[in-house]
Amino acid sequence: MEFPTLEQVVGHTPLVRLKRITAGRNNVLLAKLEGNNPAGSVKDRPALSMFSEAEARGEISPGDTLIEATSGNTGIALAMVAAMKGYRMLLIMPESASVERKQAMAAYGAELIEVSREGGMEEARDLADTMIAQGKGKALDQFSNPDNPLGHYRTTGPELWDQTGGSITHFVSSMGTTGTIMGVSRYLKEQRSDIQVIGLQPEDGASIAGIRRWPSEYLPRIFEPSRVDQILDIGQYEAEHHMRRLAREEGILAGISSGGALAGALRVAEQVENAVIVFIVCDRGDRYLSTGLLAPEL
């Protein structure tokens, strides 16, 4: 009997219909549970893709040191793959990241370098670029690497098409590095061009882990605006409130970006009828417990 390796069980996550949170107008609301990946988030897919493709091209090999800027989930996924394949992983992240995220990365053996809360991901990316230029390690660079969306084009998109029997009409996804929405949009629109792809970004002043509004000079190079039909701004309270709704009304414990995705999906549902609306539940909520965001609302 042949047993799978860890990398062979990345992906293949459940797609579930919400039962108590309804979308009205005969719409079907479906959640893609990416927290079921081995390292607990949708980022397992691009992490494995970036490693595997770089190895196939001979750009990296076990024993190399890799450097990556991350806000959390990508870093955890990269740390997992690095441990699985035998690499040294240096992760640069804002000090504001949750304790659980930092501990998960360290548990996989990654080395963490923190930058200021104020500098955020922009400072982390600048430091990563500097260290790589100094020859301290090699880069996978999730923000510019086409193997990031390629992982979703090859896995997430086909899964959604197959799991909905080709009936999906709307795809809703938070936008951070934009790899998920780029890869899924490319695949789904090749199957049926009228499928609507809706991206989510934080409204001004909101700080939502996993959703970013980048300054123009930091906009991920993998992002192609033409692949997104509509962009919605998500508010802080809106994302946090719907994150708690997912847990308390559907039994889905997820992070704040997933709450934002649900909020976006419900907004879409108000404008359409007889639609099959899929949104991405990016990760599990247990890596946010120390933030207090999942506590009861006052």
TrEMBL record:
Pathway membership: Amino-acid biosynthesis; L-cysteine biosynthesis; L-cysteine from L-serine: step 2/2
UniProt modified residues of type N6-(pyridoxal phosphate)lysine: 43
Ranges in coiled-coil conformation: none
Tryptophan synthase beta chain-like PALP domain mapped to chain residues: 7-283
Keyword Glycoprotein: no
Residues that coordinate or bind pyridoxal 5'-phosphate: 73, 176-180, 257
Name of the protein in question: Cysteine synthase
Lineage, uppermost ranks: Bacteria, Pseudomonadati, Pseudomonadota, Gammaproteobacteria, Oceanospirillales
